[in-house]
Amino acid sequence: MASQLQTINPTTEEPIASYPLMSEDEANKALEASHAAFLEWRLKSLEERAETIRAIGEELRSSRDEFAELMTREVGKLLKDSKQEIDLCAAICDFTADNGPKELADEEREIPGGTGVVTHAPIGLVYGIQPWNFPCYQVVRYAVANLMAGNGVLLKHAENCTGSGLYLRDLFERAGLPKNLFTVLLIDHDMSDKIIAHKLVRGVTLTGSDGAGRKVAQKAAEHLKKTVLELGSNDAYIVLDDADLDAAVKACATGRIYNNGQTCVNAKRFIVTEANYDAFVEKFTERMKGFEMGDPMEDSTRLGPMARDDLRDKLAKQVDESLQKGAKALCGGAVPDRKGAYYPATVLVDVQPGQPAYDDELFGPVASVIKAKDDEDAMRIANDSRYGLGGGIFSRDETRARKLASTYFDTGMVSINGFNIAIPNMPFGGVKDSGYGREHGGFGMKEFVNTKSIYMT
């Protein structure tokens, strides 16, 4: 068993740093220290918590360039994407500080013979298990909401962005967050199960694959711990008969390649009606060919490496299997002969059920284009997935598109005539195998609170 965590630059394949794993005793002491900090933090007023969170947002902006370079070194993100990620996280802090006191304020209701009070009390330590694709955002998304609610926060970050997790801890404390309230645990999966079981841990949130979600939810359920799961997806973007084709091609290509194609809400399946199929495929393939691979630190680069060699190899295997089962690659489709965890922008057609390109999440810059007979068939294919995180509809009739999105599209989020990742004032989350629970938009602040009834009679 490994005794340390190792970070490796996926662009150069060179080691960055190593970090010793915590012993069980060290991890338990860290939890106890975090719980002690929580006992003090929960007594702070909502306004006091909000001001600390606002200061975290300002510290993120002040540290933007340094932190962005670290993230790009660790996971291969385009440097400009790393900077945009930090901007989003600062905006999340602003939204939380502006809206948290109102969202979490006591509510009074009339009850027989008196007044009822609904209060949202913090519950304790919330344990987050987070992936590598957004080293800052994945943490800030749950941590800031729970700090606003008065909870303490534990983090097990992905091994390959351990440095980013520790950087955030130090950044939070520079901004004035009490020491130990946000604790980074340098642990392996076996120790993680013990953390879930620990009596001081009151809630668990995970962002990851549906397989990981099942394991974490099962372990948490053994100990009656609430969970929030944001899992994978195979998001469908539907190009209907009346779509603006040029706008659809541009948004779909951006949606597929964003973050080197490694985002849960990337556009992944492109379902195009017969009326537009041939023209879409031609224009879309040409646009995807323009995403040339390069150094993610360079401003001109449009496609960086994937985060790790093993992730690139898994994607290549999924593409190979899809090709063997009848799919056809119009561009890309093979591992390039170069240093780094690179995979080219790839367009697959003739995608059918039974192929990974249809059934599974391809977590990298590979697009699956599927032909539909008509608008109704396109919606059927879009919903023919075990996942349900995000998706998109392209149509000139926005009223009809809104109706399809709200009534028929079985996902947690839908973009109409565009592509979106996350917006602080809108809820984020999915259905089916994409998980449950919501973050952002004020919803995340109440996922791990004790909504308590007080009867004043």
Shape from CA axes?
globular
Percentage of residues assigned to helices:
40-55%
Overall SS class: alpha/beta
The total beta strand count reads: 18
Portion of residues in beta strands equals 15-25%
Major sheet: order of its strands? 12-13-14-11-10-15-16
Low-confidence residue ranges: none
Average per-residue pLDDT, rounded, comes to 97
Keywords: NADP, Oxidoreductase
Organism: Amorphus orientalis
EC number: 1.2.1.16, 1.2.1.20, 1.2.1.79
GO molecular function, one term: aldehyde dehydrogenase [NAD(P)+] activity
Summarize this structure briefly.
Helix content is 41%, strand content 20%.
Describe this structure in words.
This is Succinate-semialdehyde dehydrogenase/glutarate-semialdehyde dehydrogenase. Its EC number is 1.2.1.16, 1.2.1.20, 1.2.1.79. Residues 4-454 form the Aldehyde dehydrogenase domain. The chain is of the alpha/beta class and 457 residues long. The chain has helices spanning 24-41, 46-62, 64-75, 79-103, 137-149, 162-174, 189-197, 210-222, 245-257, 274-289, 309-324, 356-359, 375-383, 398-408; strands at 4-8, 15-20, 107-111, 114-122, 125-129, 152-156, 182-184, 201-207, 226-230, 236-239, 269-273, 328-331, 346-349, 366-372, 391-394, 415-416, 435-436, 449-456. A 7-stranded mixed β-sheet has the order 12-13-14-11-10-15-16, with helices on both faces. A 6-stranded mixed β-sheet has the order 7-6-5-8-9-17, sandwiched between helices. Strands 3-4-18 form a 3-stranded antiparallel β-sheet, with no helix packed on it. Helix 4 (79-103) packs parallel to helix 5 (137-149) and helix 9 (245-257) crosses helix 10 (274-289). It is globular, with a radius of gyration of 23 Å. It starts with a strand and ends with a strand. 52% of the residues are buried.
